[in-house]
Design goal:
The complex is a heterotrimer. Chain A is an alpha/beta fold. Chain A contains 11 helices and 12 strands. Chain A has helices spanning 57-64, 87-93, 114-124, 130-143, 160-172, 190-207, 218-224, 242-247, 252-260, 302-306, 325-330, and strands at 6-18, 30-42, 46-50, 72-77, 80-81, 97-100, 178-182, 210-215, 227-232, 235-241, 312-313, 319-320. In chain A, strand 9 (227-232) and strand 10 (235-241) form a beta hairpin. By secondary structure, chain B is α/β, with parallel strands linked by helices. Chain B has 2 domains: 34-57 and 82-93 and 178-262 and 276-331, Rossmann fold (3-Layer(aba) Sandwich); 101-174, no CATH class. Chain B is built from 12 helices and 12 strands. Chain B has helices at residues 48-56, 83-92, 101-104, 111-123, 127-140, 146-149, 159-171, 189-206, 217-223, 241-246, 251-258, 323-330, and strands spanning 6-17, 20-32, 37-41, 64-73, 76-77, 94-97, 177-181, 209-214, 226-231, 234-240, 312-315, 318-320. In chain B, strands 6-7-8-3-9-10-12-11 form an 8-stranded mixed β-sheet, sandwiched between helices. In chain B, a hairpin with a 2-residue loop joins strand 1 (6-17) and strand 2 (20-32). Chain B is globular and about 65 Å long. Chain C has one domain: MetI-like (MetI-like fold). Chain C is flat. The chains are: A alpha/beta, B alpha/beta, C mainly alpha.
């Protein structure tokens, strides 16, 4: 399935912040937020990126959306190189990729009515006549489970779940080929999360949407994603289809991450016999020259500290960036 | 059985709001023994944080007011106690940790000073002894290089470290009860696991009773002994954790467990429909006379809309406030 | 601390009222604002309609100097030249109000533009604009406006512009800091991914959300512009052929110990005007905020 119908291709994406000289010629520290990320998303599927804070998952999303500056690399939607677009051509292309944000409270302009917010991308891109836009907005409201009469309300008059529905309706308004979802359910109550996740699944089935789904919640990612990439300090450390990744995680970081999630089926005593990661990730300013995870890795060897492992593809298509996972596989 | 360490009985808390009287806690009865962890779960606005604040005597009055009921700490009544006496108990006998460690720490003092301050306030020891105790506490919460870190300011520490400092501060006077209000919500999963381990170890050593407030059923499963599920200001189900999670009786509890996509090492089909709890939490100002959950319940009986269910023993050590559960039991 | 859940309801009863009507309702529910509005209307009536009823020329010497108020038929007394203060208050009010509003408009226009572009673009643009702002900020404002008036002549227009040009820096700073905060909000990124242009983001998305502190600042500006004009006329740097409240204060100031009323009356008028404007401004601010508009 990998050779045809790829919606999104990301090649060696890098986003570095800082590192510029100020007027006095002093160079600020460079933060390697995203440091060489590559992946492909087949059309009509959901690609998940998981990681902890500082892993660069959200920056990757914003870079693909062209909302932060891309330092290096290529982002291609179908056959359009998004990373090469500038100015008006970029504006024109924006109808093809849209974003849903994490916080339904801060991602909707509080001074605009719900209908106007959903219509805004259509207005800005001059899609259809005003009557057609109004009709489209009413249809979108129905599609995401809101009532068209609610168009006249302001965002604060909606509950958290309803606001996230508005965010989805807005993202859907231009019929985009790709929707980037940056932690779309993490700010919602658990009971509401299920409503939004089901809605996203339904919409995908009906409209053939392609999602790039960013989350720190492994349960949610396992539920909704076809393919999953695990990020650590700006790089992908493991990438595989969901079944392979969750049944047979190969990177020690992925294992630790999976082990750290408390489970409803877990028992009090189970917790004690799990591998625990010590400490916090190193700073993205002074990166180690070897594997970035080595300082916290429970199985790190000397070679891990000397050179960084590459993301290698195993025979079953499972990709891992770890010197040691190959050995284990052959055993 | 002897008296529990902390016993809350029939606690009613009302808030005067512009929309009318809101009963934020409606006849709450719960207790926790030495060395026990009680988990309180529920969606936002269900009253779980209010329960914590009333135990701490921190209900803002006005608009809030403890209308009736009692809170007893080893037999001593806390409701109606003077502010000065309450201050002595707060921090010394009952400690509390909050969700956001950054905003709960004073940014202009070192963490060592802040811990020492609370020790000095409650125990009247010398400044030097208090400082030494602060370093001991930082060691107890497994902060590396504790003596050096005592001189650090909050902004110099990572989120996980700050939460450890908060725990150190709450435990500095060896309180008998520790209330943890969503202590790991702002933290990464791997750090959350470290904090849970730490709480468990400290409890084993000191025998502190812990009230753990969270929205994460997984955290309850792996950490707590008993659990109380709250909805719209009432406890709807309470009992031993293993039992409540494996055999929930209340529809709300069942929904809360089923609506979350749980991480599993043998994942089911992708985007399998999650169970939804329809609608939203009701406003506390217009709760009807029946069960507050009835409008969202999928097993509603005629009497649910007219009579408010009371907590009844449905299984051994297991209470539920649900007419449907009671009817099932009667059969 | 957790919020009390009283508002989050599944909204079922939707009334499509117009924004304008909601805003008016909200405004009139704020008693302080209504009081301010009544006061402001009274002042405007006094200043603009008053001269129709009370036709004495404010520059004409009509009686002995320093006649106390309510004596000899002079409701507010006479000044050091024996001119009718009531007439002076009416004529002077027209000028003071006009200068106050116009100067505030000038300073808000300059301040908002500079602050908005600095805050939105950041980097070199911000650096340059803020250095420019600081340059104006460190100039002694009164001295600078005196120089402008002295150079270009003392007319109403130059006085207005002089006041506007020296007082916009505070507005620029407030606007910039609001822009710095709001441009990081997700709804700005959302609008940008909806293909909004920079000018749309600045004026249609960020500015409406940045308004509250700017409105407050603009309110203060009207008051301080009236006072500024008073200071200039006190120094004899305002159009001598035009009466203003400041001029009444300035010209009677040497006699403050003998005839305090001649200074106190225009002073009180300035106080009332500034109060009325800030009450109305506050009410407008709340009415413009949809979050407060609901109930």
């Amino acid at each position: 399935m990998s050779d045809q119908n790829i919606a999104l291709t990301v090649k060696n994406l890098k986003v570095h912040f800082g590192g510029k000289k100020n007027i006095f010629g002093r160079k600020s520290n460079t933060v390697h937020a995203v440091d060489g990320v590559s992946f492909e998303v087949p059309a009509g599927t959901t690609f998940g990126i998981v990681g902890e804070s500082g892993s660069g998952k959200s920056t990757t999303a914003l870079a693909i959306m062209r909302l932060v500056h891309i330092t290096h690399g290529e982002v291609t939607l179908r056959d359009t190189a998004l990373s090469a677009l500038e100015g008006e051509t970029l504006r024109d292309a924006r109808s093809r990729f849209q974003i849903v944000f994490q916080d339904p409270y801060s991602s909707l302009n509080p001074r605009k009515r719900a209908g106007a917010l959903v219509r805004e991308p259509l207005d800005l891109m001059n899609i259809g006549t005003p009557q057609e836009r109004e009709a489209k907005v009413a249809e979108l409201f129905r599609q995401v489970g809101l009532r068209p009469e609610q168009r006249v309300l302001f965002p604060h008059q909606f509950s958290g779940g309803q606001r996230q529905r508005l965010g989805l309706a807005r993202a859907l308004s231009t019929r985009p080929e790709l929707i980037v979802c940056d932690e779309p359910v993490s700010a919602l109550d658990v009971a509401i999360q299920a409503q939004i996740l089901n809605l996203m699944g339904d919409l995908q089935k009906k409209l053939g949407l392609t999602y790039l789904f960013i989350s720190h919640d492994l349960g949610v990612v396992q539920h909704i994603c076809d393919t999953v990439a695990v990020m650590y300090l700006g790089q992908i450390v493991e990438l595989a289809d969901r079944v392979s990744l969750f049944t047979n995680p190969r990177h020690p970081y992925t294992r630790a991450l999976l082990g750290a999630v408390p489970s409803v089926y877990g028992k009090k005593r189970d917790r004690r016999n799990r591998v625990r990661l010590q400490g916090d990730p190193p700073s993205p300013i002074n990166l180690p020259k070897g594997c970035r995870f080595a300082s916290r890795c429970p199985v790190a060897e000397q070679q891990c500290k000397e050179a960084p492992p590459m993301l290698e593809t195993h025979s079953d298509g499972h990709k891992v960036a770890c010197f040691l996972s190959g050995h284990e596989l052959s055993q | 059985m002897s008296d529990p360490l902390l016993a809350v009985s029939d606690l009613v808390v009302d808030f005067q709001t512009r929309a009318g009287n809101a009963r934020v806690l409606d006849h709450i009865t719960l207790s926790v023994n030495e060395g026990e962890i009680l988990g309180i779960v529920g969606e936002s606005g269900c009253g779980k944080s209010m329960t914590a604040l009333s135990i701490m005597g921190l209900i803002p009055d006005p608009p809030g007011k403890i209308t009736s009921g009692s809170i007893k700490l080893s037999g001593q009544e806390l409701v109606g106690m003077g502010v000065d006496d309450l201050c002595k108990i707060r921090g010394k006998d009952i400690g509390m940790i909050f969700q956001e460690p950054m905003t709960s720490l004073n940014p202009v003092f070192t963490v060592g000073e802040q811990i020492a301050e609370s020790v000095r306030l409650h125990e009247g020891v010398s400044a030097k002894a208090a400082q030494a105790r602060a370093v001991d506490m930082l060691e107890a919460v497994e902060i590396p290089e504790a003596a050096a870190r005592a001189n650090a300011y909050p902004y110099q520490l990572s989120g996980g470290m700050r939460q450890r400092v908060m725990i150190a501060m709450a435990l500095a006077c060896r309180p008998r009860v520790l209330i943890a209000d969503e202590p790991t919500t702002a933290l990464d999963t791997t750090v959350q696991a470290q904090i849970f381990d730490l709480l468990q170890n400290l409890q084993d050593e000191m025998g502190t009773a812990i009230i753990m407030i969270t929205h994460d059923m997984g955290a309850i499963a792996e950490l707590a002994d008993n659990v109380a599920v709250m909805y719209a200001g009432s406890i709807v189900e309470m009992g031993k954790v293993d039992n409540v999670l494996s055999h929930p009786d209340h529809t709300y509890t069942k929904g809360l467990i089923a609506c979350v996509p749980h991480l599993s090492s043998s994942p089911g089909p992708v985007r399998e429909r999650l169970m939804e709890i329809e609608g939203v939490v009701p406003a506390l100002t217009d709760l009807g006379k029946g069960c507050a959950f009835a409008p969202r319940c999928n097993a509603v009986l005629p009497r649910c809309s007219s009579d408010k269910p009371v907590l009844l023993a449905t299984q051994e050590n297991h209470l539920a406030a649900c007419w449907a559960a009671e009817a099932e039991m009667a059969e | 601390m957790s919020e009390i859940n009283t508002q989050i309801k599944d909204v079922t009863n939707i009334q499509a009222t117009s924004s304008l009507r909601e805003m008016t309702t909200m405004f009139f529910r704020n008693y302080a604002a209504v009081a301010g509005l009544i006061l402001l209307i009274t002042i405007l009536l006094f200043v603009f309609a008053g001269p129709w009823l009370h036709t004495t020329d404010p520059f004409e010497m009509v009686w002995a100097p320093f006649t106390m108020p309510m004596q000899e038929g002079f409701i507010l007394g006479t000044d050091y030249l024996g001119r009718d203060i009531l007439s002076a208050m009416m004529a002077g009010g027209q000028v003071s109000l006009a200068i106050g509003l116009a100067a505030a408009l000038v300073s808000v226009t300059i301040g908002v533009s500079v602050g908005a572009f600095a805050g939105y673009y950041g980097g070199l643009v911000e650096e340059l604009l803020m250095r420019f702002t600081e340059f104006f900020q460190v100039l002694p404002t009164l001295l600078f406006s005196m120089v402008i008036v002295a150079l270009f002549g003392a007319s109403l227009l130059t006085v207005t512009l002089a006041i506007g040009v020296v007082s916009w820096t505070a507005v620029a700073r407030v606007t910039r800091s609001e822009f710095l905060r709001i441009r990081e909000m997700e709804y700005v990124a959302a609008a940008r991914s909806g293909s909004a242009r920079d000018l749309y983001l600045i004026f249609k998305v960020i500015l409406p959300n940045a308004l509250p502190p700017i409105v407050v600042q603009a309110n203060l500006m009207v008051g301080s512009a009236i006072l500024f004009e008073a200071a200039l006329s006190f120094l004899g740097l305002s159009d001598p052929n035009v009466m203003s409240w400041g001029q009444v204060i300035g010209s009677n100031r040497p006699y403050i110990l003998d005839a305090g009323f001649a200074v106190a009356i225009p002073g009180f008028a300035i106080f009332l005007t500034v109060l009325a404007i800030s009450l109305v401004g506050d009410g407008l601010n709340d009415a413009l905020n949809p979050k407060l508009r609901q109930r």
